[in-house]
Recover the amino acids of this structure.
């Protein structure tokens, strides 16, 4: 297989493959929370959300970002590719085994982490899930790092199909917490089997190439990035753990829905980030700082148009969205939901690939992040019971904004940003204002509809926004010729745009 590895496609092609894979995956899973919120009582649903919190946090801690070394080492030649793949499998297998032993031998660790006893009985099952998820975790990442974007798309969609089939089945026919966790374990086992086939087919003989020194080199390479990313994840999850400790499972259900990860809103960012990381690293190795600045501005412009659209439409129709997705029982989640939209605006500037490429930024960010996490956690723990869950989430968002501003300053200084290049960022304010106008129009339409059914109100709000927002972007010339071509082809697949910029030309000019 090594000799037949595909050449790497253009960055825009890579991002499009990943984007559509993530969109389809999110669409497949969209109905799961709708069913579970209605099938489970509020306390059980709160416990399920605590279980998913523990599992999502645990897999990030256990994998420790080691998988991302694949994006650096796979392109360095056949031997490095195979050896790096083996090291990742060994590392994740070891951490997964550790989790299995710890959760099986010390079930009270669940009470320590979540503050309640409702999930302690499932500790051994958590251990099994962690082990299986660690072993199968590299499946889509290996394919992406190897430049096999069609195959990675297949993996991403297939993983979500298997997960959705199991969870839909449980939600419809046997909605209990134990069955939901068993379904999660079954899906992880399916992924392990798929990953085993993939390694045998595309990484033959890798198990013969273990080198202790290279294993250490790979770990040292990923350690600062992994530690920074781990602290970021801890900072993101701490408010949920504070709420889990200080409030009941039923109240946690309200909070968790307010913190619901909106389908599609992170898709563009994830797709762009996956292809930007190796590109920024390549440009950095050639000391092309101006090109990095231009690439980052172009990618951030794409992200701004997407994120502002999501934020605008959800601000216009947020309560109806919650009522439609989770039922009226969870309308109390709306203020928390609205506050949690702010970070998506702050993260429009796509500087994470820059922090990965420049160790000096990582070190300073690591120090700053540590301080902010300690201070914000102390405030949330001390004042949370007095001022409630809205205070906790507001504190988290404010400290996150402080960190983001600090990161932007570090990146600007390191890349020698000059004021004359501000025009490259013109799309950000345009997208913000356009989304605000479109949101106002959508909200006005919502008010005019009065007491129409919630689905009708949502559809009308979305339709108004989908008409007004692109028109404003078009009129303000925020869209590039290729963006316009994509919009036209979306409406009419056979249409062409005279004089549109070929893909490779635009990628060279805007995305490096």
């Amino acid at each position: 297989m090594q000799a037949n590895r595909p050449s790497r496609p253009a960055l825009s092609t890579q991002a499009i493959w990943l984007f559509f894979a993530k969109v389809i995956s999110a669409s497949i899973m969209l109905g799961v929370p709708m069913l579970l919120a209605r099938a489970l009582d509020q306390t059980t649903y709160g416990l399920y959300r605590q279980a998913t919190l523990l599992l999502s946090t645990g897999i990030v801690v256990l994998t420790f970002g080691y998988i991302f070394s694949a994006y650096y080492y796979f392109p360095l030649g056949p031997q490095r590719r195979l050896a790096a793949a083996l090291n990742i499998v060994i590392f994740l297998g070891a951490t997964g085994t550790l989790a299995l032993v710890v959760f099986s031998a010390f079930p009270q660790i669940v009470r320590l982490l979540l503050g309640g006893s409702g999930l302690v009985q499932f500790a051994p099952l958590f251990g099994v899930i962690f082990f299986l998820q660690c072993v199968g975790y590299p499946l889509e990442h290996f394919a992406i790092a190897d430049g096999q974007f069609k195959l990675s798309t297949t993996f991403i969609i297939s993983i979500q199909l298997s997960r959705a089939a199991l969870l839909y089945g449980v939600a419809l026919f046997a909605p209990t917490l134990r069955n939901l966790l068993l379904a999660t374990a079954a899906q992880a086992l399916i992924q392990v089997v798929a990953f085993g086939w993939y390694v045998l087919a595309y990484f033959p003989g890798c198990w013969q190439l273990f080198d202790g020194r290279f294993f250490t080199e790979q770990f040292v390479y990923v350690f600062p990035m992994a530690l920074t990313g781990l602290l970021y994840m801890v900072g993101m999850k701490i408010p949920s753990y504070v709420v889990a400790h200080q409030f009941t499972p039923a109240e946690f259900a309200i909070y968790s829905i307010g913190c619901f990860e909106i389908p599609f809103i992170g898709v563009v960012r994830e797709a762009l980030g996956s292809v930007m990381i190796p590109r920024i690293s390549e440009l950095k190795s050639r000391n092309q700082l101006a090109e990095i600045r231009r690439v980052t501005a172009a990618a951030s412009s794409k992200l701004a148009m997407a994120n502002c659209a999501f934020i605008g439409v959800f601000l216009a129709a947020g309560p109806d969205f919650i009522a439609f997705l989770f039922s009226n029982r969870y309308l109390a989640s709306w203020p928390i939901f609205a506050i949690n939209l702010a970070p998506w605006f702050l993260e429009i500037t796509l500087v994470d690939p820059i922090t990965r490429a420049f160790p000096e930024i990582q070190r300073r960010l690591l120090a700053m992040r540590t301080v902010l996490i300690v201070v914000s956690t102390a405030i949330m723990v001390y004042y949370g019971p007095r001022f409630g869950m809205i205070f906790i989430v507001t504190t988290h968002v404010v400290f996150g904004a402080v960190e983001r501003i600090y990161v932007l300053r570090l990146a600007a200084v390191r890349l020698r940003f000059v004021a004359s290049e501000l025009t490259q960022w013109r799309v950000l304010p345009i997208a913000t204002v356009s989304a605000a106008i479109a949101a106002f129009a959508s909200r006005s339409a919502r008010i005019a509809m009065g007491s129409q059914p919630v689905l009708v109100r949502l559809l009308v709000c979305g339709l108004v926004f989908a008409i007004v927002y692109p028109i404003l972007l078009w009129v303000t010339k925020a869209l590039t010729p290729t963006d316009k071509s994509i919009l036209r082809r979306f409406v009419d697949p056979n249409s062409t745009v005279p004089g549109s910029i070929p893909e490779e030309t635009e990628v060279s000019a805007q995305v490096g």
